[in-house]
Amino acid sequence: MSPDLPPPLARRTLLDVAPIHASIKERPEDFLVDELPLFDPTGEGEHLYVGVQKRGVDHQEMVARLARHFGVPSSSIGTAGMKDRHAITLQTASIHLCQRNAPAVDPQWDDMGILWSMRHRHRLRRGQLRGNRFSIRLRSIDPLLVPTIWRRMQSLVETGLPDAYGPQRFGLFQTNHVLGWCLLHGQWDRFLAVMLGEGSALDSDRLKRARALAAAGQFQDAAALLGGGQRNERRVLLACAKGRPLPMAIHAAGAQALEFFVSGIQSAVFNRVVDLRLGAGTIHRPLLGDILWRPGAHGRFHFDEARASDSPQRLDIEARIAAGELSPSGPLFGTEMDEPAGEVLAMEREAMAAFRLDGGEWRSSQYAALGARRPLRVPIRNPHVEASMDEHGGSIRLAFDLPAGAFATSLLHELLGAAPEDASRRRHRDQSSSSESSSASSSESSSESSSDPDEVDSGPSSPSSSSDD
Fold first, then answer.
1. Cα dihedral 278→281→283→287 (10° resolution)
2. Active site members
3. DSSP string spanning 433-462?
4. How far is the C-alpha of 130 from the C-alpha of 92, rounded, in Å?
5. Cα(460)–Cα(457) distance, rounded to whole angstroms?
6. How far apart are CA 227 and CA 462, in angstroms?
7. Rounded to an integer, what distance in angstroms lies between the CA atom of residue 315 and that of residue 184?
8. Dist CA 323 CA 285 (whole Å)
């Protein structure tokens, strides 16, 4: 049995401000995301690049539709990142067609469309984008607070945004880090229980019944209790029902999902480092042993004794950090991650130990990631704040650009002094409660019930694999 792990989100903020309540994602049009491409397709090659606009469609469903339309396996689809389901998003995807002609690129989907297409030589890979442009409408907030929000935004533009991972990285149940821990330690029974909602604030009687059935080996009946949004969970249960042992059955969730879970525990440790550096007041100054990051250039170097003791060089580095040209970095632990030194290394190991990790997992587990460094601060570009009014009432609209991998929800947490209420999660809770009541008297033994449209959740494709900003 795995130990209890701390919550994965960063708790501290850089701005010491009074909290303001606001809600986000009341409607998809309240959360707009446009990818900022790293490069333009050349017009020739084996891969067809397409611009995809979607509304209320999760990442896995988008990939599945593209695969069906172009007649290729899902593994032939490349994207630079995952976009939130509860939003209107515009992003690029690549389809490996070789030299085959593409079908008509105007499929008739009500909630998703292809805006353009062009050939390119290489697959689009994760992280290959300059960043994302956001337009977010805050609801349940007084529009007269625009000056307050603007002043806070300007402060963050000057200091840089703490690059903490937002709640999307940890899934609807906020337990992706626990799933990653279980994978690294081979805790298969615990993995399945957590995947089915154990330890989540969104746990329900229906999920408890599913866990009890799974524990009793009645995997088909357990799968029948899951909502339509829990595709990964159902696939694992049905693989178990076919006689596959659990360590093999979990692969039915797909390699991307398993990598996402491991990323969850990496991200939780990183967030703990962000908290430690914020608490110590060192997130925007170099410590001896730091690995400093050049935002946008992906170059990094050690702040070692030679640089620290050379006054002109140290002053230059401090000035570049203050200007946002450099940032201290934090760990995404893995087999090939560069380690800092001195007190920085001690702090990062303290963060890892808080999640019951000792580093050996990255050497012994087949699920271990390669690891990387991530800047502790990122720049905010093109900020804009305005009051607005529409048929749904007053609101405050924010617009800004963030680098690839940064979370808009982390910026909102800083601006509001507290995490905004996510209306999409509220709707999921309400609909889950409604589903619980309506299915209380129905049979739990019919395997076909899992595909009943009336049971489809409003949550992401899997509660454990929600999309990033």
1. -130
2. 84
3. HHHHHHTTTS-S--GGGGG-GGG--SS-SS
4. 12
5. 8
6. 10
7. 42
8. 11
User: Tokens 């560069």 identify what position?
Assistant: 338
| Per-residue model confidence (pLDDT) at position 340 | 96
Q: Between β-strands 381-390 and 393-403, what pairing exists: parallel, antiparallel or unpaired?
A: antiparallel
Q: Is 93 exposed, middle or buried (0-12, 13-18, 19+ CB in 10 A)?
A: buried
State which residues of the chain have pLDDT below 50.
1, 439-461
Which domains, and CATH codes, for the chain?
1-26+138-469 (no CATH), 39-126 (3.30.2350.20)
Instruction: Show Cβ contacts of residue 146 under 8 Å, excluding neighbours closer than 6 positions.
Output: 385, 386, 387, 396
3-state secondary structure 157-171: HHHCEECCCCHHHHC
Q: What is the pTM of this model?
A: 0.89
The structure tokens listed for 438 are 């309506």
Question: How far is it, in rounded angstroms, from Cα 365 to Cα 289?
Answer: 28
- Is residue 51 within 8 A of residue 105, CB to CB? The reply is no
Give SS3 for 173: coil
**Beta-carbon contacts of residue 104 (< 8 Å; ≥ 6 apart):** none
C-alpha to C-alpha distance for 395 and 58, rounded to whole angstroms: 26
Predicted local confidence at residue 229, as pLDDT: 76
The residue type of 155 is S
Q: How far apart are CA 198 and CA 179, in angstroms?
A: 11
- 177/173 Cα distance (integer angstroms): 10
Exposed / middle / buried, residue 117 (Cβ in 10 Å: 0-12, 13-18, 19+) = middle
- Written as six digits, the tokens of 395 are 């609101």
Could you tell me the maximum CA-CA distance found in the chain, to the nearest angstrom?
A: 75
Taking the C-alpha atoms of residue 407 and residue 412, their distance in angstroms, rounded to an integer, is: 9
Answer yes or no: are the C-beta atoms of 45 and 122 closer than 8 Å.
Answer: yes
Distance CA 32, CA 55 (A): 9
8 Å CB contact between 371 and 336: yes
Q: Spell out the residues 6+ positions from residue 271 whose beta carbon is closer than 8 angstroms to its own.
A: 8, 9, 10, 164, 165
Two structure tokens written together for 246? 């659990």
Tokens of 15: 């701005």
Give the pLDDT confidence score for residue 462 in this predicted structure: 61
| Alpha carbon distance 125, 79 (integer Å) | 6
| CB-based burial label for 359 (10 Å; 0-12, 13-18, 19+) | exposed
d(CA 134, CA 161): 15
State the pLDDT at residue 102. Answer: 80
At 367, is the secondary structure helix, strand, or coil? coil
The CA distance from 9 to 294, in Å, is 25
The answer to whether the CB of 269 falls within 8 A of the CB of 357 is: yes
